[in-house]
Amino acid sequence: MDDHPLPSTASSARRTGYVLGATTLLFFGLGALFLGDLWGHPPARQQIALVDKSFLETTPWRQNYNDLVRAKEDLSDFDCYGCHDKKKPPVLRFDANNILVVPEEHKNIVMGHGTHNRNNLCYNCHNESNLETLQIRDGHEVKFSESSQLCGSCHGPTIRDWEAGAHGRTSGYWDRSKGDMRRLYCANCHNPHAPRIPTRVPAPGPHALRTPAHPDSHSETTP
Amino acid sequence: MPLPATPPPAAPNGSALDRRSFLRSTAAFAGLSALAASLAPLRELKDYTTPEQFLQKYYKELTPEEMKKVLERISNEVEHQYGIRPHVRDLKPMDGVEFVYALNLTRCIGCRKCVHACVAENNQSRSPEIQYIRVLKMPHGSMDVEKGNHLYDDKEVPDKGFFYMPVQCQQCKNPPCVKVCPVNATWQEKDGITVIDYDWCIGCRYCEAACPYWARRFNFTKPEIPADRINPEMSYLGNRPRKQGVMEKCHFCIQRTRVGKYPACLEVCPVGARKFGNILDPESEISYILRTKRIFIQLKEKMGTIPRFCYYFDK
């Protein structure tokens, strides 16, 4: 196979030497670059603060009557006849615009059930002949522990959805054969006196990976 | 071919090297050390593939015994990295179950709690952030996601004149991401969840490009998770920690839903806007919603992806 006259062994060895020497120099150069950090490191990524653990809470933001009983909390708010007289139903007062005046003793109550003050009467839900119960408009008495029934007497489609599991929070098991679905009651989320869910502080949004977020550059950021 | 140079006979008794072989070995040593120095960047390589992982078979070909070994390896890796012994399982789809998710746009207030509950449940990287759910703030009167902004920074939500639309993996019945994967590292299981084998993914990001919902996330760097925020309840196709260079996405919390529980985003939702269940069970709340509610079934329906994630309205 080696029919061609080869260059003399001496010059071939010299060429190999040159190549090896140049490669060695190249490697040394690269080594010096890497070990000496001649390029420098890219700027460190901005550390993103961990999200506040309160945003991970799954507990409901309100306790209903049953929760208070279970937790053996102070139930004095439900002891109406500690102050009121059993024989005399309290008299409601209205201002010049026909808006209910919440008495001083109950000033923690904000009336906000329904728009335009249309639901402006305590006895729409409370039972005036027994203040420790509630009353549906058809005259049925409802205990505080079963207040969802009262809500459902007006909010029919909502209670129907709730019974089917489609309204309100659920937790636990979707597969009922493996465990229970826990569900909440109306008053766990809604304040009966002002049922609209209040606004809240949102959890922080996504942080851009490379550049600080610019108000109108959200299409350029990385998720 | 003659030898380039016959080495000169070694010095008698090996008492002294001759000049030529000394120079030659010095040069060879210098060359090798230069080579070693030039490989310095390898020192920063930490997240390399172990031989067991490299030789691991395809997920669908693993026998139960082999899967046991794989889970053991993953447990060891997690314990080595985070100091926590996880409970890693390989959960299979249940019979007669197909998952569907429904989200109530009337109720969602845009608080982003679902985003962070998902991150905590599924061991996503905290820095840089990887989040499966994006909550779009959309002006009333339009369902055009192009008008949505997911970087809203309001003091209080919900903002007047806007509604909020969380978008995550839609678990399509006709998933474009699965079609483009060149190595079959992602596929649809019979309960409707499209899963990813993080040990099989080559990180080409084709699926990310194919997804019309921007649901897939890529680990550009090594994920950073503080050890005290690791969720030790893990599954192979679900929330076990990922490595740099692989894709991940929402998998309906496989480690929860395949044992009958609700996903984490649903349980944390403060307004009960998220509903989940088995569409094959007519008694489930998801079947009730699909029967009775006004439903916006398919986000970007022109794509023909047939999502298993739907949006609905109360009013």
Could you characterize what this model shows?
- The complex is a heterodimer of chains A (223) and B (315).
- By secondary structure, chain A is mainly α.
- In chain A, 24% of the residues lie in helices and 5% in strands.
- In chain A, the strands form 2 sheets. Chain A has a two-stranded antiparallel sheet with strand order 1-2. Chain A has a two-stranded antiparallel ribbon with strand order 3-4.
- The longest helix of chain A has 27 residues, at 9-35.
- The relative contact order of chain A is 0.10.
- Mean pLDDT of chain A is 86; it is low at 211-223.
- Chain B is built from 9 helices and 12 strands.
- Chain B has helices at 19-38, 51-55, 64-82, 113-121, 176-180, 206-210, 254-257, 264-268, 285-292; strands spanning 87-89, 99-104, 134-139, 162-167, 186-188, 194-196, 217-218, 233-235, 247-248, 274-278, 294-296, 309-313.
- The termini of chain B are far apart.
- The mean pLDDT of chain B is 91.
- The interface between A and B is large, with 64 and 71 residues.
What layout of secondary structure does this protein have?
The complex is a heterodimer of chains A (223) and B (315).
Chain A: H1 9-35, H2 65-70, E1 133-135, E2 141-143, H3 147-154, H4 156-163, E3 170-172, E4 181-183, H5 186-189
Antiparallel strand pairs in A: 1-2, 3-4
Chain B: H1 19-38, H2 51-55, H3 64-82, E1 87-89, E2 99-104, H4 113-121, E3 134-139, E4 162-167, H5 176-180, E5 186-188, E6 194-196, H6 206-210, E7 217-218, E8 233-235, E9 247-248, H7 254-257, H8 264-268, E10 274-278, H9 285-292, E11 294-296, E12 309-313
Parallel strand pairs in B: 1-8, 2-12
Antiparallel strand pairs in B: 2-10, 3-4, 5-6, 7-9, 11-12
